[in-house]
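Aggregate trends can hide what the representation actually does to any particular protein. For completeness, the protein is quoted in full, as a sequence line and a line of structure tokens.
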Amino acid sequence: MEPWTLFTDTCRSWNLDITEGQIEQLKKYADLLTETNKVMNLTAITDEAGIVEKHFLDSLSSANAVDYRGGKTLLDVGTGAGFPGIPLKILFPDLQVVLLDSLAKRVNFLNRVIEELGLEKITAVHGRAEDFARKPVYRDHFDLVTSRAVARLSVLAEYCLPFVRPGGLFVSYKAGDASAEAKDAEYAVKILGAVREKEVMLTFGPSSLERTFYLFRKEKPTPKAYPRKAGTPEKKPLVK
């Protein structure tokens, strides 16, 4: 099946309305990604079919678990080349999005995408989660915090939960069944002021991609001691 037909059909099967204009924005995004990737390592996935399935559909698949409507604020931690934040912004234009990444070259690419796609209410910022979570404008602020980053949940929780407002959600994208990892993260999640609300498993696309979304609901502000200084969460995860 042609990649964009697959994309449209899959979105419809997920009850996601998508316009021709949004398809054109995603196509332009794919072109910018492949063009820039020739001179800068953004992704190992460079064919159109792979980008559509493993970046765009994968980014949007969390809409099966989360309601992104209503002008919510969203922070995407470790966004890389903009996943899942930019596809979510394209499909849900009312989202107010901040993309956070620790590599300046990637942030420059993200700013180019934002400008060339004409996206509004979205910014890309350069820095580490451990540092930005200390800034009052970001701390305990966002309705939703997403991360598709490759790190254990006990580590991701410390990176992401300090940004979530009480009542908001941290949405973690995990490959396949990560139940053991989620269990290990329970201690960290509790210390950081949240509880695990639910998990949603999904299989989709020609490659039968398996995703599990772990949703953590923030109950109270994160204690001031967290996140710990840069590098510490990875070296000494919050586990019993």
Summary: The beta strands are 73-77, 96-101, 122-126, 142-147, 164-175, 194-204, 209-218. The CA atoms of residues 111 and 121 lie 12 Å apart.
